[in-house]
Fold this sequence. Notes:
- The chain is an alpha+beta fold.
- It has eleven helices and eight strands.
- The strands form two sheets. It has a five-stranded antiparallel sheet with strand order 1-7-2-5-8.
- It is globular and about 65 Å long.
Amino acid sequence: MDFFFSENMEDLGRPDLRNCCLHMLCTTGEGSLVYYDRCFHFRTGDLLVLPKPEGVSNLALIPGSAGELFAADYKFLQNQLPANNYSIGGSISLYGNPVISLSHAQAEVFLADIHRLRDRLINDDHPFYRELMGSLCLTMMYDIFSFHRERDGDVSSTDRAGYIVSELMRLLSEGNSRTERTVDWYARRLNVSGKYLSSTVKRLTGGSVMSYIDRHTVPILKEYLDNPRYSLTQIADRMNFASLSYFSRYCKKHLGVTPSQYRSSLQPLG
Length: 270
């Protein structure tokens, strides 16, 4: 399921939402849940952001409680975010505490965001449906970042695991994924094993090391493809792909089209 809206907070436990990121605002009443073995209480005006809902259990609501929930495919949301570090630090912090207490004005902003998404759910025949939903999801996520920043300020982490994740993001933000796209390369730079790096990133952010490598690589790839000065062979060489065929498969996987098809789409119609 790519997108889901509900006014029933008990839908939080739906098994078909396990691959989604859930965003739920409690509008009336209160309740509690267990998230990865820790109990959290929420009340009217609290927003819950749950990147990995399979960790939710023991949802309990007092009678009369109400709320609204929007869920979107986790990988889809990850692909909407720009390659910056705030979303990574925010993910680490939200795993520690997924509850954000909103002011009345902030709650109204969030509800407006998800109502725009709700109203567009039925337009799945729109030729640019996923792009449209992605744009609306991005607006919602940036608003949530703003709420979260007011709660936590800077989201840098000082413990070892948080430091490793932050250093990985620093290496990626420096553009190393232009030529280096293996977990082991980054693990060696951070003086840890590939297994430790993978498990730490997964535990703190819910995403894989490769997903973050790809998120930083795709904008670089597009920049090269958008520049007619470079042939496809030159791009493959500059980005350290083992072969032109592997380069083509990578583009097909992450852009949905081959390099030649992408280039053709840039040509003006006439």
